C-alpha cells in the first residue's frame, strides 16, 4: 500500500472506505469505554482527566489548527475556574449557570487578550499572551474574591437544572462526560467547517489568505476567543469537579503544561491532546507516591517524545500504516 | 509496597481482634506534602520519616493492629492533593492525613476529610483558616500558624528593645496579614511602625526596597513574606550592610531549613520565631539525633511536629481502644501533649494545638560550634499569648 498523498485514487478509495467503518467502530467502542469506565477506575480521577483533556483540545484548536502558540491559556482555564467557583459558592448559582459564567468570563478575557496579541506573529504573539496572563495571575493573587493562596474552597456542586444531585459521583461523572463530548463536538464541527478551512489556510500561508481577500485578523480573533471559551469550559468544570479553584490553574506553569500535553499527544489531531493530557495527569498522580521526583520523570517523557515522536503519539500513529487502517487522519 | 500490603493483609487475617477494635484491622497514616518542590526541605520525605519514627515507638502496632505509614507528593497542587486524599480514603483504607504543606492543598484536603469524617493533622500548612472558618471537629493544627509567628516576633522583639519597625511586605493577602498582625502587637507593646513598602512576589532585585528600609532608620526591618522572596532579601540585605549598620532583620515566616540554605554568613543577626529547635532541651536533642541518623539532617519544626502529631494520634488510639474517628478526635482534644516537640501542649476546641514558641537570633559564624548550631534563644513566648484564642478564631465549633 502506497504512502503519502500521491496514491492513485482508484486504490485509495476502498482503503478510506474501510478506514471509515473502522473509525466508527472505534468511536463506538471508545464511547462505551467512557461510559463503563467509572465502574472500574476511580471516578474523580477520570473526571480530572476529562477536564484536562478538554482544556488541551481547546488549546490545540489554536495551536494545531490556526498555528498560534499561546503561552497564556492558564488565564482562561484558571480564570473560568475562579468565576464558576465564586458564582456557585458565594452567589449560590446552579452549576449550569455558574459554568456558563465561567465560559463567558473566559471568552471575555479571550477577546481582550486576543485583540492585543493577534497583532503580532510567532514568538511575539506567545510573549504577549504570556505577559497578559501573568497580569491576570497577579490580579488573581491580589483580588479579595480569589482568597489569594488559600483559593476558593468547598465549592458546592449543586443540582443540575434543579433536579440532578451532582454530589452523587456518578451523576457528576456523566455530566462531565456530556460536557466533555459537547466540547469535542464543537471543536470537531469548528475545525471541519468553512471557518476551520480558512484557519488552516492562514496557518499554512497567512499572506496568501490575505491576498485571497480574507479578513485574517477577524478569523484569528474568532479562533482565539473560541479556544479561550472552551478552555474556560474545562476550567469551570474542573472547579465543580474538585470543588475548589486555586492559583495553580492561573500560574504560567499551567500554560506550559497544556503545551506539553498537546505536544506529547500530537499537534493538530483531534485525539492527540486528550491522550497527551491523560498521560501527563496520570504521571503526576500515579508517581506522587513513588520515591522519584515527579517533575524529572515528566521532563524525561517530554524529551523522549520530542526526540522520538516528533508528531506526538497520535500524530505518529496516524502516519503509520496501522493508523491509516484504523481510519485516523494525519494532522492537518 | 505490594509486599507491605500482603504482610498487612496476612497479619490482619492471622490475628483475631483482641483488646483494640480497629475499623479495618490496621492503622494507616498518610503523609501528604511537597516532596520535590520548594517546601520539600522543611517537610518532604523528612516528615514521612518522622511519622515512621513515631510508629516505631509503638512497636509498629497497637494491640494487634499493625501501623502503616504511607507518603505522597502533592507537588503543591490542590488537584493532585485532593485526588490522592480521596483515593487514600476510599480505596486504600488510610485513616488520617498529616503534614499538608501549602495552604490551598491543606484546605482542600481538610474539606474532603470532613466529608469522609477523617482526622487531618496539619503540620506544614500555616494558614489560620484551618482553625478559623475551615475548622472541623476532626481537624487539628500542629506546629505553627502565621498569626502566632507574627505576633510572637513582634511582641518579643519590642520587649528586647526593637521598638521601631519598617516592613518589606509581599504584595498579596498573605503578606498583608503578616504585616497587620505584627503591627498590632508592635504597637500594643509600645513600639512604632515607621513605614512599609510592598514588593511583587517573585521579584529578584530588592535593592530599592532595602534602601528605603535602610533610610527609614528603623531598628527592625520586618520581612513579611516567605520562601525564596525572604531568602533573597536576606542575602541582599547582607550585601547592603543593613545588619552591619545596626538594623536588625526579622523574618516573620522562616525556618531552620531556610537558615541552613542561606548559611550563617548571610543570615547572622536575623530574628525569627519557631516552635521547635533541635538544640533546646534534652528531649528535643534526643529526637533530633535519632532523626539525623536516619535522614542526614536536623528536623525542621514541621518535621518534628509531624512526629509529635503522629505520636499523639497513636496515643489517642491506644487510649480510646479504637481507631474510630469520633473517639480518637475526642481523646486528641482531651490529652495534653508532652514530647520532644512540646512540653506543655494542649488542644483547643478549634483544633489548634497550643505550645510555647521561641524567638531566636541567628548566631554569628564564629559563635557556631558546628553544623546546625544556628540559634541563640532570645525569648520564650507562652502558647496562650502566641496563638489566637479559640473564641476569637471565627471557628463555628466554639461558642
From TrEMBL, chain A:
Keywords: Cell membrane, Membrane, Transmembrane, Transmembrane helix. It comes from the Bacteria. One of its GO terms (cellular component) is plasma membrane. GO terms for molecular function: branched-chain amino acid transmembrane transporter activity. It is found in: Cell membrane. InterPro entries: ABC_transp_permease (IPR001851), LivM-like (IPR043428). The chain crosses the membrane at residues 25-55, 62-85, 97-116, 123-145, 172-191, 212-238, 258-283, 290-309. Its main location: membrane. It is a multi-pass membrane protein. This is ABC transporter permease.
From TrEMBL, chain B:
Keywords: Amino-acid transport, Signal, Transport. One of its GO terms (biological process) is amino acid transport. It holds the Pfam family Peripla_BP_6. The keyword DNA damage does not apply. Belongs to the leucine-binding protein family. Residues 1-20 form the signal peptide. InterPro entries: BCAA_transport, Leu-bd, Peripla_BP_I. It comes from Paracoccus sphaerophysae. The lineage of its organism: Bacteria, Pseudomonadati, Pseudomonadota, Alphaproteobacteria, Rhodobacterales. It comes from the Bacteria. This is ABC transporter permease.
